[in-house]
Structures are given as C-alpha cells and as structure tokens.
Amino acid sequence: MVDFFIGHYAYWFTIILLCIGLYGILFKKNLVKKTIGLAIIQASVVLFFVSIASKTGDATVTVRDANLPVDQVANYLNPLPHTLMLTAIVVGVATLGVAFTLLIAIYNRYDTLDEKELIDKIQ
Amino acid sequence: MIESHLPAYIALTFVLFSLLIPAFGIWRNELSQPIAVLGSGIAAALSLYGFINYLSDGAIRYYFGGWEPPIGIEFVYDGLSGFFVMVINVVAFFVLIHSHHIGKREFPGKEMPYYTLAMLMMLGFNGMILTGDLFNLYVFLEISSLSGYALLSIGNKPAPYAAFRYLIIGTFGGTLYLLGVGFLYTVTGTLNIIDMSAMLPQLFDNNAVFVALILMIVGIGVKAALFPLHGWLPDAYTYASSSSTALIAPIGTKVAAYILFRIVLWLFGIEITDAIAPLSTIIGVLAAIGILYGSIMAIAQTELKRMLAYSSVSQIGYIIMGLSLANPWGFAGALLHVLNHAVMKACLFMVSGQLRLKEGHSDISRFDDSYRKKYPWTMAAFTISAISMVGLPPLAGFFSKWYLVLGTIDNSNWLFLAVILISSLLNAVYFFRILEKVYMKNPVSGQKEASDATRDEAPWSMIIPTSVFALGLIIIGFANAVIVSVLLGIYPL
Amino acid sequence: MTLTYIPLLAILVSLVAVIPIMLSSKKPNLREFWTILAGVVKFGLVLTLLPGAIEGRSVELHLMDLAPGIPLALNADPLGVYFAIIASGLWIFTSFYSIGYVRGAGEHKQTRYFASFAICLSATIGIAFSANLVTFILFYEMLTIATYPLVIHNEKKEAIQAGRKYLAFTLTAGLLLVAASALVYHYTGSVEFTPGGLFTGLELPHTTMLVIFILFLGAVGVKAGIMPIHGWLPAAMAAPTPVSALLHAVAVVKSGVFAVIRVVGYVFGTDVLGAYGLNDILIVLAGSTIILASLIAFAQDNLKRRLAYSTVGHLSYIVLGVALLTPLGMQGGIMHIAAHATMKITLFFCAGAIYVNLHRTEISNLNGIAKVMPWTMAAFTVGSLGLAGVPPINGFFSKWYLALGSLEGDMLIPMFILIISGLLNAGYFFPIIHRAYFKKGEGLEGYGEASPLMVVPLVLTAILSILFGLFPNLFFGLFDLANSIALSLF
Q1: What integer best gives the mean pLDDT of chain A?
Q2: Chain-centre distance for alpha carbon B62
C-alpha cells in the first residue's frame, strides 16, 4: 500500500499538478488565473515525460561518458522524452504567448478580465 | 519522381507560402490573398494528383531525412489520409478565394498576418493528417490550433474572448492527448503509428493502454466537438469573421475526426478499443446525443452563423457515429459525410458571409423575400446546400445518410437509426424556415413587395466558390457510387 | 425500333421544358405553349410504350450507379405505363384548365406555377418508371419538393401552414421509406421491384416482416391518404384548384397508391404478404378510412374539402382492392386508379370553375348555380354518379371488380364496406346536385359559364368517364392492361 504511493510518486505528482491546473481552469474567474492553470497542466505533462525517461541508477543527464559504453543502455537515461519535451515546452510558451495576446485584446475591448463581468457585458 | 516526395511537398507548400506571404505582404498588402490562394491551389492540385496516384499505385511512406521508422518520423499517404487531405485542401482553396471581399470589410489592412496564419493553420491540418508519428501529430495539432485561435479572434467584439475560451479547452485537450501518447510510449517504446499498431494486440488488456486510449479520445474529442466537449464551438464560430469560420468550420472538426478514425480503427483496432470497456458504444451514444442536441439547439437560434455552428455539432455527430459502428457501410457513410459536410458547411458559411457583406447582418428574423430578387445565385447555392443537409436525393447529403442507415442496420442498432431519421426531420425544420422567409412574402407584415428590390448580387469572387460547391453537391450525389467504392476499399478490416 | 430511351425521355421532357417556361415568363402565351407542348410530347412518348405493355413487356434502362450495386434504373413495366398514361394524359387537360384558371383568378407568380407543375409531372413519370426502391425514393422526394411551391402558391397564412403540414407529413414519410428500403436491402440484398417480391424463400421472423411492413405503410400511406396519416390532404386544399385536381387527385395521391401496389406486389409479393397475414392490417386501415372519410365528408361545407375527404375515401378503395390479395380485387384497384382519376379531376375542375366564375367556395352557397353554369354542373353530376358507383360511368366498373375481388377472397366485410360507402358517397354528393339544380339561387344575375379553357376540359373528362365506362378498352386498352397486371402478380 505504501509502495503504491511512494513507488509511483512521479505519477502522483503529475496527477496532483493536473488537478491543480484543472481546478484553476474550472473554478477561477480571472482569465489570467485560468491561463496559469493551463500552464500548470502543461508543466505536469512535461514532468510525466521526464519522469519516465529515467532509469534506476542512470546518469542524470545524457552526456556521453567515455567510461560507459553507449550500448549499455541502462546506464543512460532515455533522451527521447527529453527531446519531445523540449518541443512541448516551446509549444507551451507559444500557447502562453497567444493566450496573453488574446487577454490583452479582451482587456482592451472590455476593460475587465473577470469571467463573470465579461459574460454580462457580452450579453 | 514527384510521387515519392508527395506527402512532404503538400506540407512544404504551406511552409513556403507562409513565408512568402509576409515577404510580399509587407511590401504590398493586397498581394497576401492572391498568394494564399495560389498556395492552397498548389496544395489542392498536389492532393488531387496524390489521391489519383494512390488509387493506381498504393500508399506512400515518406521518411524525413531518410531515417527509417521507428527511429525516424514519417509521413504516410494512404487511402484515409489521402482522402482527408484532398477534401480539406480543395475546400480551403475555394474558401480562400471567397474570402477576398470579406477581408476588405472585416479586417482591412490586416490581410498579411491573416493569410499567413491561414497558411500555417493549413500546414498544421495537413501535417496532422499525413504524419505517421504520434508526437509529430501533437506538434502539428498545436500548430493548427494556435493559428486557429488567432484566426478565430478576428471578428466581432466578443471574438477574442470566444477564442480564449477555445484556447483553454483546446490546449487542455491537446495536453490530454499528449499524456495519452506518453502512456503509450511508456508501454510500447515507440511513437510510430504503424509500428505501435503491431505491438498493441498483445497489450490489449493493459490498463495503461486503456487509459491512454481514453485520454486520447477525450483530448481529440475536444477538437472534434464531440458532445459534451463541444461547448467552445458555437461562440467561437459565431463571433469570428465570416471567412475564418468558413475556413475552420468545414475543416477543423474533420481533421480531429480523422485522428479519431486513425486511433480507433487503425492504431488500436476495434477489438482492443472494446476490450476493457465498450468504448465504441460510448462514443456512439455521445455522438448520437450530440446529433440531437445540435439539431434542437439549431432550431432555437435566430442568427444564421450560430445556427450553422450548432448544426456543425450535429453533423460531426454523424461522422463519429459512423466511426463507432465499425462496419464497412458505417465507415463509408462517415467518410462520405466528411466530404459532403465539408462542402455543404463551407458553402453555407460562405453564403452567410456574403449576406453579412451585403446586408450587414445575418439575423434570420430580419431575412425577407427581397433576398431572392437581390441575391438569386447566393440563395440558389444556399437552397441546394440546405436541401442536401436535410438529406433529399439526388443531392450528396442523402447518400451519406443512406450508408449510415445501412451501417446502423448491419449492427442492428435501431436507436442510432431512429436518431439519424429524427435529426433529418429536425434539420428540415431549421433550414426550411429560412427558405420560407426568403422565397415567400411574409403574410403578416405588409413589407414592401419583393419586386421592388433590384439585383444586387455579391461579387464574382464570392459567387463562383459557392456555386461550385453547390454544383459539387449535385455531382457528388450522382457520382457517389464511385466514391463509396473507393472508400470501402480503404476500410481496414 | 428501340424503345430503350423512351422512359428516360418521357421523364426529361417536362424537366427540360422548365427552362423555356422560365425564360418566357414575360410572354404568357409562349410560356403556356411550352407547357402544352411538353405535355403532348410526354403523353406521346408514353403512348409508344403502350403496345408493349399490353403484351406484358417492359422497357428497362440502367443509368449510372447510385450506390454500389444499386443503379438509377428505369423499368417501364405494364403497371408503370398504366400509371404514366393516366398522369400524362390528364396533365394535358389540366394544363388547359390551368391557363383558364390562373388567368381567370388573376393568380400571381404564374411562371413559378407552371414550372413547378412541369417538374411535378417529371417526378410522377419517374415514380411510375422507377425500377428499384432507391430510384423510387429519388423521384418520390422530388415530387414532394416540386409540389411544395404549388401548395403554398398564394402565400397566404393558410397556405403556408398547409405547406408546413404537407412537408412535415411527406418528409417523415420519405425518411420511413429510406429506413424501410435499407431494411429490405439488408435482409434480401436487393431493392429491385420484382413481381412476386424479394422475400420468397427467406424465412424471416414475423416481427421483422411486420416492422418492415409498418415502416412501408407509414411511408406510402401518407401520400395514399390512409387514415390516420391523411391529415395533409384536406389542408392542401389551400392550393389553387388545378393543383388540387391534378396533384391531389391524380399525381401525388395516385403515386401513393401506386407505391402501395409496388410494395404489396413487387417488394413483399402477394404470397408472402398473405402468408404472414400482413394484408389484414391493410384491410382494416383501408376499410376504416373509407367509412370514416365518407362520414367526415358529410360535415364539410367547403366544397374542396368535401372533395378532399372523398378522395381520401376513394384512395382507400384502391388500397382495399390491393389488400384483398385476389386477382380480381387487384384488378379492381388498378381500374379505380384510372376511374377515380377521371371522375375526381372532373369534380375538382368544376369546383375551380365555380370559384373563378362565381367566387363561391361553400356548398351552402351553391343554390341554383346549375342555371348559370349548366355544363359545369352536368359534368359534376356525371362525376358524382360515377364515384357513387352508378353505371355506366367507369366508377361503377372498378367498384364491381372490387366487390368481385372481395367475394373471390371469401370476404364479405369489404363488400359491405363498398356498398355502404357507395351510399355515403351518394349522400354527400347528391345534396350538392340537388341544391344546384332545384334550389333558388341568389346573386347569380349576369353570370354565365366559366371560360371555355376551363369548361371544355371538365366536360371532356366527364365524357371520358362515361366512355371508359361503356367501352373499358377504348383508345388505350386500359381494362386489358389492368387485367394482365393483376394476373402477373399472382
């Protein structure tokens, strides 16, 4: 039972962050806070991928060590998820950029970033 | 020679043109739209050529950089992806032609960034369809989504807010999809679709695979406006500029549907999908609810674009229901409906754009029968598309419903059959209501006689695309046997 | 001489005519010329198919595939030719009558009217010549769409409501037809109309057959005016009278009963239907419709509405004859298609003439009009007598064969229904005649007959009714044709 939590702590971390982010998106009225929630969700997925890349007793960074042959794969962590996440982080940054642009446009038009007020103003 | 690189060329066209448009656009703004039309025209031509080539020579697998899968990333041009690519590029070509005058009215001076974004979005869509790598799919998904959010934010005053809401839920969906990909990678060690589909049968009762499937379906379901994840669609389509909606509405949800097809029928296969829980039935039921919900909400709308938006929610339900049936007729019906709906909805949204251009509004309660004198060609195209949406032969819409009906009967799924029939009636209600208004004098209000109105038709660059699409619906209707034989050949089982 | 393309040409003639009709909208005489020309050509083309039909031959034509394995196919078989002759022949009369009517009543949007009529007839011939269910659906829906502008023609509130009701009924019927056809395709692998049906040899469970049959009934019953889905027909009387005359006495409703015959004889097959006992449902529905419709007709004061309910009743004569599943009954039903067509069209023509001439629509207002409109009322009398089953008008003979069919099938109740209904027919028609001839009229000074364009057609159709009664095989051999069709189905 304890092992269920401790042994899988990376996954629990991911899920908790996901839920925090989801809470932010669903229950926060301010649009900026929603965006923050979104960023947290994206961070949680990045963490998940990074966590699956590591192996027990491996090198923490993929730098070739002359002493350890490359084909002893267990000594090196899996670089592929890291590269995928580099892309994903970039995507996340771009998303935040677009989100903030939209928020500026909304603010310019409606002078508020509160969801309740916005819905009232739009009706 | 060109054939083997074809998948790459289609995507590269859009990359090239998304660079050309800023280059020329900064110099002369009005060149943006023609260059965009040129770009999408080349892509459409390549897609058509590619599909004809596929029919004779079979699928093409293109390895980027020469790296073979599963290490390298590849584009796979097979029947399913070729069909979808052809549909979206041809539709986009005509919609971009149509957007010329709308652009001058709704976003003057901003053509350069607009068409660049349109090119990037088409790049994203084409990449999503062609790629054979799951993570690559995520990248293209985000490319298309981000450009889509930006395009949808141009329009009325509430447009940025509608786009923002779409951004939040769309990115959340994409992230769920990515998490699902992560689960699958953890279990199989590969990201290549063809490679993974060979490994998954042994893992059919693996919980991680099951959760991954659900995550991916939910994530993509957001983009596909599968009930109940459709909430972003009505606002986003209504407030955006008419040309943005005309571009995104026929294409965006279809591409997401493509991904669902790929995942459920090719990657996992129907046995694995239903191994732990009857997911295909659940998807089908949600689709059925979406069909009815969309139709009912559409009846309640007074504004044309919003009505068409809810109608889109309903129509994508047909496609996903066809997917959930997992039999040849349902598959053929769903894919035929992809083609039909793309053409019909594009035509309808373009018509709404023309009406907004000429009348300044698209409020149904203010339609009157002077329209039929003022805009005969526009209303003719609208009428043909409306009749096709209702599903009357010999227009295209009838046949996709016919095959879906055959598909539901093959599965003895009487509930779905009833849903298809009832929703056709509901479609008739909200479309014929408009036709009544436009073609007949309102008997209550003594408005001015329609013959007072003079012909004031929209410009040629708008009439031609809508007329081509209307004509296309008639042709697709008569030629559907040929199309369906090809589609049945694509079915993977 | 090859007849292969004649069915297609017969359908296309009036479709093609739409273009010159619309182009000559500013020159009414030229525009009407196109309509008449199309009608005559169409009738002529159908006539060339008649000799072959009498000998039992069909003319088949496969056009492109509509779906893999299902072609858009025409088959001018004897039944189809029978229906086509009646429809196209009566269109010529109706066209002349229409000209008189729309000009006399000063109707608006005449071009739309004539163009829609042309498309309707095209669809009707298409229905007659459809070789399979999918082609049939195509033309069936085309008829629905083409008749809509005619139903809502005068665009008043009542007409638009009628149009909505019409669409609601007929579109639902179309969808049920799609479902039923898909089920047939699923279970039998074919949708071709085949004498003897598609289900021979298949042992399907009773429930399945029942469901498919009910779906078909819902689909064709709407157009065939079977109660309780007949509601659109009285409402559709809001249309101009020529529309009511040709479409709602001949084209649309006869398409409905034609479809009933196709379903009973060519999809299910008379043996199969009888084996599953499904025709009992039809007998009950048809029988009740006949009686109820005749009773409701009594209560109508509006002349056209009374005629509408009379039509509902008489359509079910045909359905009843078909449902008896005996050769004589089937023959009686088929004969009644022609007989009712000529008689009812006469009556509607009279109603329209009375409206255009005297602006009267209610029966209580028709006192003494026989004095000013003798020809019209004479024709009306002929039509009414025929519908009540009085010899020597053709209505008597179709009824006679229906009664024979009932006896042939050892069923007495249908025969009684026919007798009672004949009395009821007399009951709701004769008062009109009585009023017209024997009551004193008011406000009739200075009026004469209606325009010859209207009166001549209605007199001619009345005379035809008598002639076909006296000489059933006159001109077209319709009696023998009906006979051979009925026999081919057993």
Answers
A1: 86
A2: 25
Chains in contact with B via at least 3 Cβ–Cβ pairs below 8 Å? A, C
Q: Tell me which residues of chain C have a pLDDT lower than 50.
A: none
Strands of B70-196, DSSP E: 74-77
Type of residue found at C10? A
User: Residue B163's closest chain A neighbor by CA?
Assistant: A102
* Among candidates A88, A91, A99 on the partner chain, residue whose Cβ is nearest the Cβ of B164: A99
Per DSSP, helices labelled H in C359-451 are 374-388, 394-408, 413-438
A16: domain CATH number is 1.10.287.3510
C365-377 in b/e form (b: 16+ CB < 10 A) is: bbbbbbebbebbb
pTM of the model: 0.90
Rounded-to-integer distance, Cα C111 and Cα C103, Å: 12
Whether the CB of B105 is below 8 Å from some CB of chain C: the reply is: no
Q: Is residue B169 part of a domain?
A: no
- Collapsing DSSP states into helix, strand and coil, what is residue B303? strand
Does any domain span residue B436? yes
**How many pairs of residues across A and B have Cβ atoms under 8 Å apart?**
70
Kindly identify which residue of chain B lies nearest to residue C72, measuring between CA atoms: B478
Calpha distance C173→C471 (Å, rounded): 38
Contact between chain C and chain A (3 or more Cβ pairs less than 8 Å apart)? no
pLDDT at position B442: 60
Render the burial of B95-132: b for 16+ CB within 10 Å, e for the rest.
bbbbbbbbbeebbeeebbbbbbbbbbbbbbbbbbbbbb
Whether C211 contacts chain B with CB within 8 A: no
Cβ of B460: how many Cβ atoms within 10 Å? 12
Three-state secondary structure call for residue C73: strand
Side chain identity at B20, as an amino acid letter? L
Give chain B's radius of gyration (CA, Å): 22
Distance CA C448, CA C370 (A): 10
C-contacting residues in B 70-99 (Cβ below 8 Å): none
Parent domain of B419: 292-493
- Which residue(s) pair with A59 in the sheet? A76
Looking at per-residue pLDDT, the higher value among C372 and A88 belongs to A88
Checking if the pLDDT of B69 tops 90, the result is no
Q: Is residue B41 part of a domain?
A: no
Distance from C-alpha of B67 to C-alpha of B65, rounded to nearest angstrom: 5
Q: What ipTM does this complex have?
A: 0.92
Please tell me the total count of domains within chain A. Answer: 1
What would the two tokens of residue B77 be? 């041009």
Domain-embedded: residue B349: yes
**3-state secondary structure string across A42-88:** HHHHHHHHHHHHCCCCCECCCCCCCCCCCCCHHHECCHHHHHHHHHH
- Cβ atoms C133, C184 nearer than 8 A: yes
Q: Please, what is the angle between helix B111-130 and helix B6-27, to 10°?
A: 170
Sequence-distant (6+) residues with CB within 8 A of B69 are: B61, B63, B132, B133, B192, B194, B195
Query: How is chain A split among helix, strand and coil, in percent rounded to 5?
Result: 75, 5, 25
| Min Cα separation B403/chain A (Å) | 40
**Which chain B residues are closer than 8 Å to A122 by Cβ?**
157-158, 161
Q: Do A38 and B157 touch (CB under 8 A)?
A: no
Q: Which residue has the higher pLDDT, B18 or C484?
A: B18
Q: How many domains does chain B fold into?
A: 1
Listed residue (C442, C298, C465) closest to C381, CA to CA: C465
Triad C51, C57, C62: Cα angle to 5°: 115
Residues 6+ apart with CB under 8 A from C194: C266, C269
Q: Which residues of B touch C186 (CB under 8 A)?
A: 406, 409-410
Structure tokens belonging to residue C332: 């009686």
Give the residue-averaged pLDDT of B315-324: 94
Q: Which domain holds residue A40?
A: 2-63+71-122
Angle between the N-to-C axes of helices C28-54 and C110-129, in degrees from 0 to 180, rounded to the nearest 10: 10
